[in-house]
């Protein structure tokens, strides 16, 4: 924690007040813009498969970092599902292997 969070939502939950969380109801582009303003010259991190998908389709991502853990889950939202027919090109920047995780880093080209 310790940094502002911008939560994309259709409606702000009743009674939710926090100095760290800002609920954004006007779309992912607005949330990213607000996060960039708050971050200044620091990086903005986007999490959650659906938000990552929306950002990728809107051209809002510079890089994708994936921490690949050898564990198969039966359910959940696939990170690269629902991207439509758009061609997204990635350039591999780094691969770091460890016994229980592989860290992947890609630059989003298009």
Question: Can you offer a commentary on this structure?
Answer:
It is a single chain. The protein has 110 residues and is of the alpha+beta class. The chain has 2 domains: 1-45, no CATH class; 61-110, no CATH class. It has 2 helices and 5 strands, in the order E-E-H-H-E-E-E. It has helices at residues 28-39, 49-57, and strands at residues 5-8, 21-24, 63-68, 90-97, 102-108. Strands 3-5-4 form a 3-stranded antiparallel sheet, with no helix packed on it. A hairpin with a 4-residue loop joins strand 4 (90-97) and strand 5 (102-108). It starts with a strand and ends with a strand. The model has no long low-confidence stretch (mean pLDDT 91).
Task: Describe the secondary structure blueprint for this structure.
Blueprint: E1 5-8, E2 21-24, H1 28-39, H2 49-57, E3 63-68, E4 90-97, E5 102-108
Parallel strand pairs: 1-2
Antiparallel strand pairs: 3-5, 4-5
Q: Outline the biggest β-sheet.
A: 3 strands, antiparallel
Stretches where pLDDT falls below 50 for ≥5 residues?
none
Radius of gyration: 16 Å
What percentage of residues falls in helices of 4 or more residues? 10-25%
């Amino acid at each position: 924690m310790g940094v502002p969070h911008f939560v994309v939502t259709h409606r702000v939950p009743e009674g939710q007040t926090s100095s760290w969380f800002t609920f954004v109801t006007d779309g992912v582009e607005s949330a990213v813009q607000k996060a960039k303003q708050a971050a200044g010259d620091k990086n903005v991190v986007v999490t959650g498969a659906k938000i990552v998908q929306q950002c990728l389709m809107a051209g809002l991502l510079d890089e994708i970092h994936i921490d690949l853990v050898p564990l198969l889950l039966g359910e959940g939202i696939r990170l690269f599902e629902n991207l439509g027919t758009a061609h997204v090109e990635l350039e591999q920047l780094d691969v770091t292997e460890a016994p229980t995780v592989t860290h992947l880093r890609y630059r989003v080209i298009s």
